[in-house]
Amino acid sequence: MEQPRLSLKARVEALFRAHPNEWISSFDLQRVGGAMASRTRISEVRRSGMTITNRCRRIDTPTGPQTVSEYKYEPPTPTQARLALGVLREDHPDGFDG
Q1: In terms of Cα–Cα distance, which of 74, 78, 65, 81 is closest to 24?
Q2: pTM for the structure as a whole
């Protein structure tokens, strides 16, 4: 049985989740998420709740300096995850509901 194809957003999200806290070049994201709309896919992934950080840096190449854009998925800390799930409360002395 043929497996359903993942959407471009799902493919970009899978790449980020497979490489947490690692910088991924915009070129790699374009290969996975489509060359024409990779930034749209990144925005969609951000809207789904993932924290994606961007940086730009200059590199020297044989044809001269170029700017490279890179993105990194920063998974939530355990405390952030518990807050998101409603298990941890900031307004409770020990942090837990109960």
Answers
A1: 74
A2: 0.73
